[in-house]
Specification:
alpha+beta, Nuclear Transport Factor 2, Chain: A, 144 residues, six-stranded mixed beta sheet, isomerase activity, Ketosteroid isomerase-like protein
Length: 144
Amino acid sequence: MSATPTEVMYALIDGVTGKKWDDLPPLYAEDTVVEHPMNTPRATVLRGREALRRHFDSARDMPMDMSAHNIVVHQTTDPETVIGEFEYHVRPHGENTKEFVVRNIYVLTVRDGLILRSRDYADHLAFAVGMDRLTPLVEALQRA
């Protein structure tokens, strides 16, 4: 039996916080579409499992550890779609080790245990501030 949308949501959050980068692409359908509407300096869209694999490969060297807190998964009128609200508590590596919080909402559409579509609303500005990356972000925004 395939995993339910709620189970997939928890597996996704666990995979990201646990840095289980190789376990994440198999959660997605081959033709998945993942949107990051709040990404900065501009929104991004990833199409296909291979794009997700590259995305997660690029995360391997993130200089931080994360844990998920206050996870709430909402059911919708579409049995394939769930909405997850949660917070990442982020602990940077290096000189700046002050923990910070990033609020997230994931909207997943899951069929046969695989993510067909995901809209990931993360507070990327909080990431930039918490990781002391605000100046490079402002410069990127000025160029955009």
